[in-house]
Amino acid sequence: MMQYEMISYVILLKRYPETCNKKPLGYISLASQKNNISLYLSNIYGDPDLAKWFYEEYKKSGKRMDIGKSCVRGRNIEDYPLDLIAEAVGKMSVEEYIKVYEDSRKETKNG
Questions:
Q1: CA-CA distance, 66 to 49, in Å (whole number)?
Q2: Domain span at residue 15?
Q3: Is residue 45 part of a domain?
């Protein structure tokens, strides 16, 4: 679906309605920015162990790393290690991602 002006893969409200903003829970989004294409991998952002694995594997890919707090940036499709991105997307089930999301909300409320 389109969410926040990005192509997004989301967990629909009928599956998980308890989001903080009452919108579907974003999992992966792709945005065309002025100077780059940004790929938002929320499962990586929400799991420090998965993020560490992703960064290490990204370095091994030999592709230029331009990674922000929650996104990977490139100027064109050739800038991305697509096999690694596909593997990263598949490393977390919907149930696991919902748990990561819920845990992050608990931290926000408590901290």
A1: 19
A2: 2-93
A3: yes
Per-residue pLDDT of 14-71, as tens digits, reads 999 989 899 999 999 999 888 889 999 988 888 889 999 999 999 999 998 888 877 8
Q: Is residue 40 a part of any domain in this protein?
A: yes
* Integer Cα distance of 22 and 42 in angstroms: 17
Tally of domains in the chain: 1
pLDDT of residue 17: 93
Torsion angle of C-alpha atoms 105, 57, 62, 80, degrees rounded to 10: -40
This prediction's pTM = 0.82
Where helices occur in 1-111 by DSSP H, the ranges are: 42-46, 48-61, 82-90, 94-110
- Does a structural domain hold residue 72? yes
Task: Examine residue 49 and state whether it is found in any structural domain, yes or no.
Answer: yes
